[in-house]
Amino acid sequence: MTEAARHANPVERPDFARGLSNLADARAGATVVAVSDEFFAPGERMLAAAPPVFYPERFDDHGKWMDGWETRRRRGPGHDWAVVRLAMPGVIEAIELDTSFFTGNFPPAASVEACRVESGDPDAATVWQEIVPVVSLRGDDHRFCRVEAGEVFTHLRLNLYPDGGIARLRVHGRGRPRLAAAGGDVPDLAALGHGGRVVAVSDAHYGDPNAILAPGRGVNMGDGWETRRRREPGNDWGIIALGCPGRIERVVVDTAHFKGNFPARVSLQAARPENATDESLVPQSMFWETLLPEMPLQADAIHEFQTEQLVDVGVVSHVRCNLIPDGGISRLRLHGWPEGSG
């Protein structure tokens, strides 16, 4: 008998949490480095990119399987906590505490502290700063907390009072990545770990568009961005905000696992719009300069486009990727040097 999963309902973010990167995205490198307890469910699970799910009939050796971080029932003083190393240093503007499917086992309250460590992880001498004072939580709910510290942090400590479970921790902010060439290669300015993010797409019927900016190759067809079958004129598109402005020198489009549904062609446009909102970028992007003219794609293949195939459009901060006419790609790499790097 096949298990039937219940999926968390989508939640609209408040204005103060929109247009930001998730600095606690495990795909980008965020990880739990210390935890007081994770008897029922590991801390790493709350950093997963996918929305939480619930399997009514699933149990493991420790009890009910939950999609998140869950501690045992505390029988003494104190409270539970988890220390998270962010995917990159950044300025945090909002914390999202998601208790989806945690109903009789959610924490009544939580708080968040942050610190900046130049090398390694926090230790006993680390000074923590409270960025979210103690707030009440409810079961199977989302709590968005505005953060106004304005400083660059590298780690968070999530405190649960006194114990319980969190399905997802999202840390909405603006990355301040330490961009460097790895092994002499030009850095990928669009990588999640460098602060890149997908601003908008024409359609995301299948998959998570931000997956195209994740490290490594896709593990299956669900690990990418795929649109529905287009039944009208035009083509599908996605707008990517780079982690920092730069001059793009090499492009990689990977259609791993997309065989009968890859785009016939791809093209890129780019610009450096000033004082633009995510919403205003959509109509503007139609008129951006061409970075990569239309190029044919193949199924389940890595396509590399070098400097001689790209148009020199100067320093840009945003790229529009056109899938012609529709279909799916697994990864998009936009390699280039950050502005001011020489």
Summarize, please.
It is built from one helix and 24 strands. The protein has one helix at residues 278-285; strands at 6-7, 21-22, 31-35, 53-54, 59-60, 63-64, 69-70, 80-98, 109-115, 129-136, 142-146, 152-161, 165-166, 168-175, 197-201, 206-207, 225-226, 236-254, 265-271, 289-296, 302-305, 316-324, 328-329, 331-338.
Keywords:
342 residues; mainly beta; Jelly Rolls; 2 domains; 8-stranded antiparallel beta sheet; 7-stranded antiparallel beta sheet; 1 helix
Describe this structure in words.
It is a single chain. The protein has 342 residues and is mostly beta strands. The protein folds into two domains: 6-175, Sandwich (Jelly Rolls), CATH 2.60.120.260; 192-338, Galactose-binding domain-like (Jelly Rolls). It has one helix and 24 strands. The strands form six sheets. Strands 2, 3, 8, 9, 10, 11, 12 and 14 form an eight-stranded antiparallel beta sheet that branches. Strands 15, 18, 19, 20, 21, 22 and 24 form a seven-stranded antiparallel beta sheet that branches. Strands 16-17-23 form a three-stranded antiparallel beta sheet, with no helix packed on it. The radius of gyration is 21 Å and the shape is globular. 44% of the residues are buried. The model has no long low-confidence stretch (mean pLDDT 95).
